Amino acid sequence: MDATQWQERITSELAGLGQQEFVIIKEPEPSVPEPTGFLARLRAKSSRSAAPSRWGQVLCVDEVLSAEFAGTQHIGGSWEASAEQHEALRAAGWLTPDETDPIAPAPGLPHYWRTVPQAEAELVAGLLVDAFRILGADLATLTLERDR
């Protein structure tokens, strides 16, 4: 799917969310290779973890969409991004954890976030697609999961 198709699909999903339902849009999780050799196995026992992946999620509560996107190291998250990418996310409309919003409080985790009325689902869909593009994700590999 291209950016336009993703935006249309996400908008449709968000507009149809009921109370306490959510969607997650994400990249496939990178695999962690199995260590080889005795010393590699010893090191891997304590330090092996999956590389961070890019994801976004949106929860609907009382017809308000609360959107989060994986945080970059600029705001305390795990995803590496350039200063330009961070600024582009901000310019696109994402808030950082230290900012406030009149609709809802910021999440407690270091993620980009935004809350809007459910009637503005298209805005949130655009934010998500922009975030994936800004951070260089391959839109063709994204998946969407919906919890009902």
Task: Explain this structure.
It is a single chain. This protein is α+β, with helices and mostly antiparallel strands and 148 residues long. The protein is built from 4 helices and 5 strands; from the N terminus they run H-E-H-E-E-H-E-H-E. It has a 5-stranded antiparallel beta sheet, covered by helices on one side. Helix 1 (3-15) runs antiparallel to helix 4 and helix 3 packs antiparallel against helix 4. The chain is globular, with a radius of gyration of 17 Å. The two termini are 24 Å apart. 26% of the residues are buried. The model has no long low-confidence stretch (mean pLDDT 86).
Reconstruct the topology from this structure.
Layout: H1 3-15, E1 22-26, H2 38-47, E2 55-61, E3 64-69, H3 83-92, E4 112-117, H4 121-134, E5 143-147
Antiparallel strand pairs: 1-2, 1-5, 2-3, 3-4
Q: Bin the strand percentage.
A: 15-25%
Distance between the termini: 24 Å
* Helix proportion: 25-40%
Shape: globular
Supply the helix-strand structural class: alpha+beta
Order of strands, main sheet, comes to: 4-3-2-1-5
Short structural description:
With 148 residues, the protein is α+β, with helices and mostly antiparallel strands. The protein has helices spanning 3-15, 38-47, 83-92, 121-134; strands at 22-26, 55-61, 64-69, 112-117, 143-147.
Question: Characteristics of this structure?
Answer:
single chain; 148 residues; 5-stranded antiparallel sheet
